[in-house]
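Notes taken during the Thursday session

The instructor put the following on the board and asked us to keep it in front of us for the whole hour. The protein is WD40-repeat-containing domain protein. We were told not to look anything up and to reason only from what is written here. First, the residues (188 in total):
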Amino acid sequence: MAHKSAIEKSPLQSYVSALVFGPTRSIIRALFEREEPDWITTAPALEEKWSACLSTLEGHNSEVTSVAFSPDSARLVSGSSDKTVKIWDASSGACLQTLEGHSGEVASVGLSPDSTQLASGSWDNTGHQGLGISSDRMWVTYNSENILWLPSEYRPSCVTVSENMIGIGTSFGRVWICHVERNKPNAS
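Then, after some discussion, the predicted structure tokens were revealed:
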């Protein structure tokens, strides 16, 4: 239904588009092959069948930043810049639950191996101590103290932390891994 208004305003163009851009083995092509416009001299390269996309899940109000399947693939969890986490039924596409509470965008979601626990990481740094990223994404932090400034090409679109290692994915297609050692103050 996302394209309903375009189809209502221009039904003939939509009809022709279905013929020109539809897969070569589609039912529309088979039934209306003779109706394909002859004024199109160079047709696009097409697939034989429709894609394997099963469904499109809609409900977040902003960019989806992380998704994860349950181990049995029955559920899909998504996190978003809209500061929410949604739990979806993977077979029907129904939104089962929307979780709110983060004050920053959700950067990562995951489910435990038995699917009984859900974890979400956010740029608000809730529930996180130790190594992390500042809310403005300009610094690697340790216990909320800025320790390493990140040039723009290394600013994260996603982050993972494991003890004293931080992995940063960037919008420039790079993944950066950093090992951080904190010096302990000298005992006097």
